[in-house]
Automatic annotation (TrEMBL):
Domain of life: Eukaryota
Ranges of compositional bias, category Basic and acidic residues: 24-37
Organism: Reticulomyxa filosa
Name of the protein described by the UniProt record: Uncharacterized protein
Biased composition (Polar residues): 1-12
Disordered, as annotated region: 1-37
Length: 111
């Protein structure tokens, strides 16, 4: 006799055991109780690192004569630029949320 349904081995792992997925406890973006200033500080530090990597990869790409390495550096630069855009968007959202919280008056429930 065949069993009805799908065996658990064919199910995607995140849906099978979501509680066993590892969480990065050092990344403040994953925690809701982290203050906005800490999130912005983290974003600024990460942006500085990414921008310095972009400059470094650009210099290495210009100095390299191998076309394969140039393509690799171009790919790394594109990935870092994407990460920078994502971080800047998240930073802007956090700043807007922080400004919104400052305007909100809890006693009168008015803006």
């Amino acid at each position: 006799m065949e069993e009805v349904g799908t065996p658990s081995s064919t199910l995607p792992t995140p849906y099978l055991v979501p509680s066993k997925r590892k969480k990065n406890l050092t990344d403040p973006h994953l925690h809701r109780d982290v203050s906005d200033t800490d999130k912005l500080k983290y974003a600024n530090e990460r942006l500085a690192v990414l921008n310095s990597e972009i400059v470094l990869y650009t210099k290495k790409m210009e100095m390299s004569e191998d076309t394969n390495m140039k393509e690799k550096y171009q790919q790394l630069i594109a990935e870092n630029k994407t990460k920078v855009k994502i971080l800047e968007t998240g930073k802007r959202i956090t700043e807007n949320a922080r400004d919104h919280k400052k305007l909100y008056d809890k006693e009168t429930f008015k803006f």
